[in-house]
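Many introductory courses stop at the sequence. We go one step further.
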Amino acid sequence: VHLEESGGGLVEPGGSLRLSCAASGFRFSGYVMMWFRQAPEKERERVATISGPGGTTYGDSVRGRFAISRDDVNKMVYLDMNDLKPWDTGVYYCHWPTGNSWGRGTQVTVSS
């Protein structure tokens, strides 16, 4: 199993980013997928979840600003992040809970 995140970077407050997660090594379709993030000196925090059929839930701090989506054909999960705030800064991880697998993460920094 391999999960690889991409799309992180430096963005100004109010800006947008799209994170991508490429999955391989398992069937992917039908499985729940998740995004987490971890800010410096803080615990890892759930950001968003997408079910096999595409139902979504979000953490309180990102609801209304972030959107998770999936492409089962290409085994991809996306996180569209809008109206970014400085406290959104952190390393963002893709997670497959059924297999307890994590990507290595991609850094997002929101700063002027």
